[in-house]
Amino acid sequence: MALIEVAGLTKSYGATQAVRGVDFEVEEGEIFGILGPNGAGKTTAVECVAGIRTPDAGRVRVLGLDPRTERAELRQVLGVQLQESRLPERLRVGEALDLFASFYRDPADPGRLLHDFHLESKRRTAVKALSGGQQQRLSIALALVGNPKVAILDELTTGLDPRARRDTWQVVEQVRDRGVTVVLVTHFMEEAERLCDRIALIDQGRIAALDTPAALISDVSGGQRLRFRSADAVDRSALSALDEVADVMVEGRTVTVTGRGDLAGAVEAELARQGVSTDGVRTETTTLEDAYLSLTGRSLGGHAETEGADA
Ligand code: ADP
């Protein structure tokens, strides 16, 4: 059953077309990822789902509710953890949970949430005195205090060190295990790959592909990637013509080949036929980053941070 239905969603800010006709459905019980570099339109899309922004066009339903006209009802079933949720700095952790719980008809037990999110010892600590990881755990706890059916978590591990990031991932899995359907917005490929049942790859306001991580990786990049270096000239078109080969990239002396089946065997035989000697053909693991790159020609990675900022 689809808990969230989005069809033809479009939203511009002045001349910036942030979301350009996006369709997806989120099924009950899944962790659904929205993955793309900064500026791709992820936050805008989920803010429309949460009723925080009004779309220019398109249809959005969350458990059958229209986020624009049924916001009060929606708030009872949808928990939202947005980027940099601002809390008054002097508010204590326990007070924040009690305050948020008071907004809901049937809230979760704040004490229980403190326990589950390892914040019991921080009950009387001011929010501003928490570490980054603790603040993220608190913001997820706050998103869950209304006992929502669906939780939207936006860039929840940005700014965390690798250890705190992994701890947060465990918490997200626990959230799903409580029966909460999760929409996870991220620009970290590793996070999406590790946590999500299905992922929408979003590029410049459009969905480039939507599938399970495994299917995205094998369908799009061909499933396997080989790399070798050679001082000899390689007949690239003969390599490309092999049945097993999907794509050949040459950068200086480094050759990267993606494809399927017995790719290494086929490539090594062809290189021997060409009389090309290499430093050894290495098989590398393909990732969502490969899939994203091959679909969009763009990288998910690091420097996208600044690209998004001035878009
Ligand atoms: P993401 O969440 O993928 O980083 P956003 O939805 O935040 O993407 O942004 C998509 C595009 O819309 C970007 O070009 C961004 O600069 C622009 N944008 C986002 N919010 C606003 C806003 N409030 N006013 C104007 N432009 C915005």
Architecture overview:
It is found in: Cell membrane. InterPro entries: AAA+_ATPase, ABC_transporter-like_ATP-bd, ABC_transporter-like_CS, ABC_transporter_ATP-binding, P-loop_NTPase. Residues 4-229 form the ABC transporter domain. The chain is of the alpha/beta class and 311 residues long. The protein has two domains: 2-214, Rossmann fold (3-Layer(aba) Sandwich); 224-285, Alpha-Beta Plaits. 35% of the residues lie in helices and 27% in strands. It has helices at residues 42-49, 71-77, 93-101, 110-116, 132-144, 162-177, 189-195, 213-221, 236-240, 263-274, 288-296, 304-309, and strands at 2-13, 16-27, 31-35, 57-62, 78-81, 150-154, 181-186, 198-203, 206-211, 224-229, 245-251, 254-259, 282-284. It is elongated. The structure holds adenosine-5'-diphosphate. The site of adenosine-5'-diphosphate has 13 residues, from strand 2 and helix 1.
Number of domains: 2
Residues in helices, as a percent range: 25-40%
Order of helices and strands: EEEHEHEHHHEHEHEEHEHEEHEHH
**Tally of individual helices:** 12
Q: What CATH architecture of the largest domain would you give? A: 3-Layer(aba) Sandwich
User: Structural class, from helix and strand content?
Assistant: alpha/beta
Could you name the CATH homologous superfamily of the largest domain? P-loop containing nucleotide triphosphate hydrolases
How would you write the strand order of the largest sheet? 5-6-7-3-8-9
* Computed CA radius of gyration, to the nearest angstrom: 23 Å
The N- to C-terminal Cα distance equals 37 Å
Tally of extended strands? 13
Whole-number mean pLDDT: 89
Pfam families: ABC_tran
InterPro entries: AAA+_ATPase (IPR003593), ABC_transporter-like_ATP-bd (IPR003439), ABC_transporter-like_CS (IPR017871), ABC_transporter_ATP-binding (IPR050763), P-loop_NTPase (IPR027417)
Keywords: Antibiotic resistance, ATP-binding, Cell membrane, Membrane, Nucleotide-binding, Translocase, Transport
Membrane topology: Peripheral membrane protein
